[in-house]
Design brief:
Structural class: alpha+beta
Shape: globular
Number of helices: 6
CATH topology of the largest domain: C8orf32 fold
Helix content: 10-25%
Largest sheet: 7 strands, antiparallel
CATH architecture of the largest domain: Roll
Length: 292
């Protein structure tokens, strides 16, 4: 599939901000045998006084910007063309849960895709007893790791209601779990904690979701903004697989990857600091248009 993407993120301040420094992660990745970034650009208004590009630990391209002068709003616009490849359906070669620790310990790598980075707590995902109890239903089973991942994805989709007004970007997984409502970030964070509580490495994926569904298909939840889903390490042979608990589907050609991380804090599209006070209004618009 070939897509044209556009993203607009705007911040409107009650009081002009100054000395603003931000890091942007909004450009889709190029991933072997998965997706290819054909062309892309990011424009920031007002124009930054300083701008530099770097690659973070998880090998994502990021842009650092500095705006010194007072400004009442900040606009970030990204445009890109991306080709997404369909993934072959593979047999389930993942181990049963009891065998997974042995395969994790046999992995000596600590590169960005190593499962060791995705087992324990991370900045936004502390151990949560309620979610661990929720996941315990799969612990005594003889299911494979991949089967457990699919079961967790389906159960969260069944038990939670997609509700953009129920939570904010700062809502904790514990709060979202008690509400049983939220958006893709909440669905993904709960699923990651549930899997990690079982000893299954799991991480967060930030990206985009196809806006216009294929003929005869329903529109997917979360397509109006940047989307999130979950990647799960299913053993040495099966490797990483990606599941979307918001829609209870495997990530496929409708999903376009921007960044991988342990949780939202590693992949937030915009983070930074500025000098100001009062409130701010945030606007976001996304278009993912299929070309063929």
């Amino acid at each position: 599939m070939l897509y044209d993407l556009s993203l607009h993120m705007g911040y409107i301040y009650d009081v002009p901000a100054s000395g603003a420094r931000h890091i942007l992660r909004v450009m889709p990745l190029s991933l072997p045998h998965r997706q290819r970034l054909i062309a892309g650009s990011v424009k920031v208004t007002p124009g930054p006084d300083e701008q530099s590009n770097f690659t973070d630990f998880f090998q994502h391209p990021a842009t650092s910007i500095l705006v010194r002068d007072p400004h009442e709003r900040l606009d970030i616009r990204m445009q890109a063309r991306v080709q997404v490849e369909s993934q072959p359906v593979a047999a389930d070669f993942s181990p049963v849960l009891a065998k997974l620790p042995e395969e994790i310990s046999d992995c000596w790598s600590i590169d960005p895709s190593s499962p060791h980075h995705f087992i324990g707590s991370s900045p936004r995902l502390p151990e949560t007893g309620e979610i661990a109890d929720y996941a315990r239903r799969w612990k005594a089973t003889n299911l494979t790791t991949l089967q457990i991942a699919h079961a967790a994805c389906a159960q969260i989709h069944k038990d939670f209601t997609y509700d953009p007004k129920a939570t904010t970007v700062d809502t904790t997984p514990k709060e979202a779990f008690r509400l049983k409502r939220g958006v893709c970030q909440d669905f993904s964070h709960v699923m990651i904690i549930a899997l990690r509580s079982l000893g299954i490495p799991a991480g967060y994926v930030s990206g985009f979701l196809r806006t216009i569904p294929p003929p005869g298909k329903e529109r997917l939840e979360g397509a109006d903004a940047m989307h999130a889903w979950v990647r799960v390490w299913c053993g040495e042979t099966a490797g990483w697989i990606e599941l979307d608990p918001t829609n209870n589907i495997p990530a496929g050609t409708d999903h376009i990857v921007v960044a991988y991380g342990r949780d939202y804090s590693d992949v937030a599209p915009v983070i930074g600091v500025l000098k100001s006070y009062g409130n701010q209004k945030t606007v976001q618009a996304v278009d993912v248009i299929p070309l063929k």
